[in-house]
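User: My instructor asked us to take a sequence, write out its structure as tokens, and then describe one feature of it. I'm not sure where to start. Here is the sequence I was given:
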Amino acid sequence: MKKKILFTLVMTVSLLCVGVQAQEFRYGLSGGYNYNSTKESISRSGFHAGLKGEYAFREAAKGLYADMGLMISSYGWKSVPYYVMNERTYEYESTPYYLHIPIHLGYKLKVGRNVSLFLDAGPYFNVGLFGQMKQIASLPGEQDIVTVASHNMFKEGVMPRFDWGVGFRAGLEIARHVQIAIGYDWGMTKTYQHNPDTKFRTFVASLTYYF
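Assistant: Let's start with the prediction itself. The structure tokens for your sequence are:
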């Protein structure tokens, strides 16, 4: 699976780089908010921040472009509490950090002198970097007991290091420099080894400035 993901990533990047001389390239800084959940967890907030690049295809239909990013992204999740003996409950929470690499194809529509609407979609690839998992034990009337269940979930095999999915972004571009976007990412692989219903579902809001 890891080899297939890496091969797909390399091939996609290679295709985007074909014909660079016939394209207009620009780059910028991007950051924003993640609201992440899985089928079997409670939603938590996170962030993303990093670099974005964009190719405008001059010889294709006007407005057609491809973009990609290289970002640090956090995907927090928290398990649903479960009961054990003597009314004590346990839950797990974690905020794993990934190198997030989205590769999208999109289209822009000019709606004013300095304003355009855009929509793009495509795959993304995540490479796990680090992140702890904590166990929280609760009992009514007593202070919660917090212990570290995993110091590095990727290194210790609790979460797979590689994840991928598909997503889309829609937004507004102002004066060719500022982009405001919202979107959604659908994870395609389980992200917690002991539970198959842990594919990421992430709402994204971002702000990008192109130089």
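For the description part of your assignment, you could build on this observation: The helical segments are 2-17. Try explaining in your own words what that tells you about the chain.
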